[in-house]
Amino acid sequence: MAGLMQKLDMRQGQSLVMTPQLQQAIKLLQLSNIELAEFVEGELERNPLLERDDSAESAESSLEAGDGEPRELELASPSADANDSLDADVDVIHSDDSKSDLAGVSPPEAADAVGAGANNWTPSGGGGGAAGEEYDAIANSSRNLTLSEHLHNQLSTATNDPIDRMIGAHLIDLADEDGYLRADLSEVSTRLGLERARIEAVLEVTQSFEPAGVMARDLGECLALQLREKNRLDPAMACLLDNLERLAKHEYDTLRGLCGVDDDDLVDMVSEIRQLTPKPGLAFGNDNARAVEPDVFIRQAPDGGWQVELNSETLPRVLVNNRYYNEIHSAARTEQEKSFISECNQNASWLVKSLDQRARTILKVASEIVRQQDMFLAHGVAYLRPLNLKTVADAIGMHESTVSRVTSNKFVSTPRGMFELKYFFTSAIPSAGGGEAHSAEAVRHRIKNLIDQETASEVLSDDKLVDLLRAEGIEIARRTVAKYREALNIPSSVQRRRILKRAG
């Protein structure tokens, strides 16, 4: 056996160093607007060269291309290495940490400039969607939960149907700080393009959430929800709740007759009502409540298309004080002082450019999502197209993980309500005729509509649903129909037939 030998070997290869500035740019991409504001406030306190930009110029002006033509944004700081490209694959990124620690990390890619901070899209007939993964909810933050966050957390486990989740999220966002839903359900139905019965069904689910009584539309319903949870909502108590105005006027004789109870029972019922909470939402307090502000606005354009623009109110505006830098740099005496001043200047410059890059990237991703999902904006949730991260990433020339970070914790305000960008990514169901694929959410919505139209004499089995869907050009397996039906909490055809016969 040949002896072991030691030798030096030189190899040439390419790699991207994961600098602290590059890590910061990646971090900024996935922050929500509230978290970004807090981060920038911290940087303003730490870095003496950073200043808040209180000028009259809007944040969108920093995104203007000037000549209307796209231009490439220079992201590297003046002293950064040329290899600090923001368009790199995770496999070639190395830092002081192990490669396993960087799994799933991908730097943001450079984005093209856009005119005036807004993009216009004309509705298209094509889809562009492809089969993709389901939406995975993001872990909640560790700070104290607000009422809205508490309800959203319960919604994520209350239903598996994405359309019902979108309806529920919209209703929760409409609730006030007392925990009441003051919105008109007919207006909500029109805005979302769905039947009022579907909206009411989802509302009933949210009314089962904690704290008891939340999502009620009036005081009587709030108290009824709390009594129902205690199993105390009998006919007499329900009658009393229907006549709260008489109770407020102390018309006890009338109430005894209406409720069919004696004096002792009425006293007990009134005492029980007084122990309930008329404003269940206040248990979470007002100090922690934070309204969700959209990062992007989508509005109908005069030409029938859609206008996409950033919410300038959520964009921190900072600048580098070069005059102060020149003053203190010339006055620095030791190498340590000069090094500190140079580092502050480099960090400040990089932060300004990273914020600009973040805004451009969000706008670019949101614009592509609007192009893909214009039918949803025009006609409602039932018209969501199948879409995944790769489709958007390929269309705009970015890495898939970058699109994932951009769409996390980012909200968009549309004519149909406010939604998280993640909600627009849906899996695909193939078309029977080889045409455009169908969104899984739209298929679930169609299954629900078919079952809602059933009669006692004609209940649709899963096999029959498969035949009806295939006749509409949706290629779907029986087990998939059963899975979607169960996700919608719809009983089997045998159980539904029994329910309809009893109801008849």
Mind telling me the CATH class of the domain at 428-503? Mainly Alpha
- Helical amount among residues, as a percent range? 40-55%
As laid out across the biggest beta sheet, the strand order is 4-6-5-8-9
- How large a portion of the residues is in β-strands, by DSSP E? 5-15%
CATH topology of the domain at 428-503: Arc Repressor Mutant, subunit A
Tell the overall outline: extended
Overall structural class, as computed from helix and strand content, comes to alpha+beta
Helix count equals 20
Low confidence ranges:
56-118, 120-143
CATH architecture label name of the domain at 428-503: Orthogonal Bundle
Provide mean pLDDT, rounded. 76
Q: Main beta sheet, described?
A: 5 strands, mixed
Distance between the termini: 90 Å
Radius of gyration, rounded? 29 Å
Number of strands: 11
Structure, explained:
The chain has 504 residues and is of the alpha+beta class. Among the domains are: 147-206, no CATH class; 219-276; 428-503, Orthogonal Bundle (Arc Repressor Mutant, subunit A). The chain has 20 helices and 11 strands. It has helices at 20-30, 33-46, 147-158, 162-174, 185-192, 196-206, 219-229, 235-241, 244-248, 252-259, 263-274, 322-331, 335-372, 374-379, 389-396, 400-407, 440-452, 462-471, 478-487, 493-503; strands at 16-17, 50-52, 93-94, 118-121, 296-300, 306-310, 318-320, 411-414, 417-420, 428-429, 438-439. A 5-stranded mixed sheet has the order 4-6-5-8-9. Strands 1-3 form a two-stranded parallel sheet. A two-stranded antiparallel ribbon has the order 2-7. α13 (335-372) crosses α15 (389-396) and α15 (389-396) packs across α16 (400-407). The radius of gyration is 29 Å and the shape is extended. The relative contact order is 0.15.
